[in-house]
C-alpha cells in the first residue's frame, strides 16, 4: 500500500520555513491506518517482544495500536511531569535548549525485549534519548520503527549502530 498518499505537507508549520509532514490523515484513514499497523506487525518477531514503547505524542497512536495487534503491553515515554509515581528521567539537548523524557519505574523489566516506535524521525534527538532511557532501565531494544523519516536532517546518523526501519522517506535539507 502507498502510505504516502495519505501524508499531507503543510508549508510554514509550526513556523515559517518549515515544511511539516502531517501523518494525521493516515492515522485517520479506516483503510490506511489498519494496513500500516499490519505492515509493521508482519515483520516483527512477535514471540520475543514483551512491549512496544511509544514516544509522546504521535508515537502513542502507532505504538498502542501495534501493541494491541501483537497482544503485548504498551509503555509510554512521556515528557517530564506527565507520569504519576516514581519515574526514570533523561534530559537531552535540543537545537535550542533541552528537554526531559520519562518512563515509569517498573514499566519494563530488565532484559525485556522492546520495540520503540514513533511517527517521524527528523534530527533524532528525542529518539536517541528514548533509546538511551530504555537501555538505562534494562530494556533490550530490538528495533526502532518510524512511520516516516526525513532524510538529510541527521536522524539516522544520530542513531548509528541501531536497527532502524522507516516505512516512508522524504529527502529534505536543513
Descriptive account of the structure:
The chain is of the alpha/beta class. The protein has a single domain (3-171), classed as Rossmann fold. Helices cover 25% and strands 37% of the residues. It has helices spanning 24-27, 32-42, 58-70, 125-136, 155-158, and strands at residues 8-11, 19-22, 51-55, 73-79, 87-94, 97-104, 113-121, 140-151, 164-171. The strands form 2 sheets. It has a 7-stranded mixed β-sheet with strand order 5-6-4-3-7-8-9, with helices on both faces. Helix 2 (32-42) packs across helix 3. The chain is globular and about 40 Å long. Homodimer. It comes from Leptospirillum ferrodiazotrophum. Catalyzes a salvage reaction resulting in the formation of AMP, that is energically less costly than de novo synthesis. It is an enzyme of class 2 (transferase). Belongs to the purine/pyrimidine phosphoribosyltransferase family.
Notable characteristics:
single chain, 174 residues, alpha/beta, Rossmann fold, seven-stranded mixed β-sheet, two-stranded antiparallel sheet, globular
How many structural units, i.e. domains? 1
SSE succession: EEHHEHEEEEHEHE
Average pLDDT over all residues: 95
Q: In whole angstroms, how far apart are the ends? A: 29 Å
Please report which band the strand proportion falls in: under 5%, 5-15%, 15-25%, 25-35%, 35-45% or over 45%: 35-45%
Indicate the structural class.
alpha/beta
In CATH, the topology is named Rossmann fold
Second-tier CATH architecture: 3-Layer(aba) Sandwich
Q: Give a short account of the largest sheet.
A: 7 strands, mixed
EC number: 2.4.2.7
Protein name: Adenine phosphoribosyltransferase
Catalytic activity: AMP + diphosphate = 5-phospho-alpha-D-ribose 1-diphosphate + adenine
Domain Phosphoribosyltransferase: 37-148
